[in-house]
Amino acid sequence: MPDLQPEVTSGLAIFKKSDDIFGTVELDRSRFGHLFGSHIPAARESGIADVEIESQYRAHLGTARIFYYPGKEQATMMVQQPGLFGRICKELNQQSVYNSDTSAGTAQASLPLGHAHQVQLLCLLVFTAAKEGAQQFVEMIFSSSAGRIVFDAYNGSSPLPEEVALEHGNKETARYFEKTTKRLSTEISNGKECSNVIDWSELAKAAMRAQQESGN
Fold it and tell me: Which among 19, 103, 15, 20 has a CA at the least distance from the CA of 53?
């Protein structure tokens, strides 16, 4: 976003998902010459949202993008309903395409979710699935190239997802995690390399197949 002109003393942040405006925040100018607001409004659903910035004269100053992480209830719904997860995958895949298309520095909007946060999102959902016994979701993740990335992120930590699954009485899911841990640990011991980039298009397609199978 360009430097603010001296006459810009306040503004408005307009939060939108698609064309749906779900919040506005009044902005003030700091002594450092930046606009700032008092809070970030809650969104009705997780995912990427656009934030349009206007001056007090309603002149467009720029657009930013932010990512809303799923809350506890949303995460539970997402691991139980592949269609909801698929929507997030499509949004993040579009972000990845946008990132590659604008890598020369021509981007007009900041990118909301870097690699570390993408992995964090999948870890959150995997541990939620362990707790809920969402077997289909777990198998979907660990049958994809993203499974190894997620495993590398949580491996060696405590508790492990198989422990979480067992604690909540999900024995079948716990056994699947144990087999997955053994398989991926063997891959690591054998020096098998893996991608370090999450393929959201692959996950979106997997979610679509899972949705067709489950009807959710």
Answer: 15
Q: Is 195 helix (H, G, I), strand (E, B) or coil?
A: coil
Cβ neighbors of 18 (< 8 A, separation 6 or more) are none
By CB neighbour count within 10 A (0-12 exposed, 13-18 middle, 19+ buried), where does 186 fall? exposed
Please check whether residue 79 lies inside any domain of the structure: yes
Report pTM. 0.79
- Domain with 196, as residue range(s), is 72-98+110-214
94-128 pLDDT per residue, tens: 877 655 544 444 333 445 678 889 999 999 999 99
- Integer-rounded Cα radius of gyration of the chain: 20
pLDDT digit string, tens, across residues 146-193 = 999 999 999 989 999 999 999 999 999 999 999 999 999 999 999 998
Contact present, 214 and 85 (Cβ < 8 Å): no
